[in-house]
Amino acid sequence: MPLILLGLSHDTAPITLRERVAVPESRLHESLQDLKQQAGVLEAFIISTCNRSEFYCRITTEADRSLLSHWISDYFGIEQDELENHSYRKFNTELIRHLIRVAAGMESMVLGEPQILGQVKTAFSIAEDNKTTGKVLHRLLEMVFTACKTIRTETAMGRNPVSVASTAVKLAHQLYGQLSEQTVLLIGAGEMIGLSLRHLQQQGVTKFIIANRSLENAQKLALEFNAEAISLEQLESRLADADIVFSSTAATTPLITKTMIKNCQKLRRHRPLLLVDIAVPRDIAADVASISSVYLYSIDDLREVIAGNLKQRANEVKQAEVYVEQYLHEFLRWWRGHQVAASIRKIRERSHTITEIAVAAALQQLAKGKDPETVVRTLGTQLTNKLLHLPSTRLREAAADENRKVLDAAMHLFDVETKPENADQPDSEKGDSSL
């Protein structure tokens, strides 16, 4: 093709490594442009979520297939050995299959979670805006979205949707029981925070504080949920008001430190505090977990809560796999046609050139007063000879080399039925078959 992918996910890499290769939406433009400029890269596309960072390319046939590992190593400052130990690579057919599964939530930490499809669509839109995708990746992603729609509507994968956000809310419910008396501080104003707000509201929570770098965005979300909006500058002073903290931002360094939580817990008289950090890179410093009255969960810590969900949905994957293979083969069929289209175009261009030369010569003959019938017949003979000269030469070479594939292909292309030698001769002329 060749299509190549290098990725790191919750299944292969610890969060300490994933947060180093995470590409927030604000940096996607820069990363896509840098990747697209690498030698041999024709198209580029990046998916980066809290659970995975995947880098897709279509490259020239001459390009080094290891170019992604070299680029990631240089761009993010990661040793090759570390990258090798925690990443996966996929090519062509396996890559297409994998991308459908990822977008459909079949590779997610929470099996079947619906948010990943929206994240892939956003990543695709940004790549399109940056003109790093071309005809092949565009067609591939459009097929992936159609496949996901079919999987969602025709299988149980789309029923009773579960997300990381809903799983985190279940965790809070397990720790506190009824949540109606708890105050929840949510940091961020993106899709994950919006989902968390909805799940928390369904559990009876009424007291929300929303903190965000853009106070305007926090106020928009607060209006919908009758919450209080604050800026990040107010975060430290308001931590003590919260019983539960959910955080999901695109910050590159922790927003909450151990010192901040220590001071907060003194004001709260060390009542239990649940911190759920669903950001990559992490919003809450890892050493906060050492404070005895604090329960800190990162995206990877939610695995145990999610484990039961995996068993429940495992059987649903089998049905979804049928659609994965169906759409995979539809795309491969299109791709093969796309590839041969270039060859057909070249054949037509060559034939057109030969025809133009022969027609020009014929017109000259007519202009000189030559007999039209003779000129037309000569033109037909010349065209036949010139158009079939090279194919005839190649066929003779194939016959000499006993290259049966080329011979059979030629017979098929020209719709010629081959007969054994002497097949048209009477039996008496074929000779003694026993000789």
Condensed summary:
The protein is 54% helix and 13% strand.
What do these coordinates show?
This protein has 435 residues and is an alpha/beta fold. The chain folds into three domains: 3-160 and 316-337, 2-Layer Sandwich (Beta Polymerase, domain 2); 164-305, Rossmann fold (3-Layer(aba) Sandwich), CATH 3.40.50; 347-413, no CATH class. Helix content is 54%, strand content 13%. It is built from 15 helices and ten strands. The strands form two sheets. It has a six-stranded parallel sheet with strand order 7-6-5-8-9-10, covered by helices on one side. Strand 5 (183-187), helix 9 and strand 6 (207-212) form a beta-alpha-beta unit. Helix 7 crosses helix 13, helix 8 (164-176) packs across helix 9 and helix 13 crosses helix 14 (372-400). The model is unreliable at 428-435 (pLDDT under 50).
- The second-level CATH architecture of the largest domain is 2-Layer Sandwich
> How many beta-strand segments?
10
- Write the H/E string, N to C: EHHEEHHEHHHHEHEHEHEHEEHHH
CATH class of the largest domain, please? Alpha Beta
For the sheet with most strands, the description reads:
6 strands, parallel
Output the number of helix runs: 15
What integer value in Å does the Rg equal?
A: 32 Å
**What portion of residues is helical?**
40-55%
Q: Low-confidence spans: pLDDT under 50, at least 5 residues?
A: 428-435
Q: Walk across the major sheet and give the strand order.
A: 7-6-5-8-9-10
Structural class: alpha/beta
CATH T-level topology of the largest domain = Beta Polymerase, domain 2
Under CATH, the homologous superfamily of the largest domain reads: Glutamyl-tRNA reductase, N-terminal domain
Query: Percent of residues in beta strands?
Result: 5-15%
Mean pLDDT: 88
Ends distance: 52 Å
What general form does the structure show? elongated
What is the count of distinct domains? 3
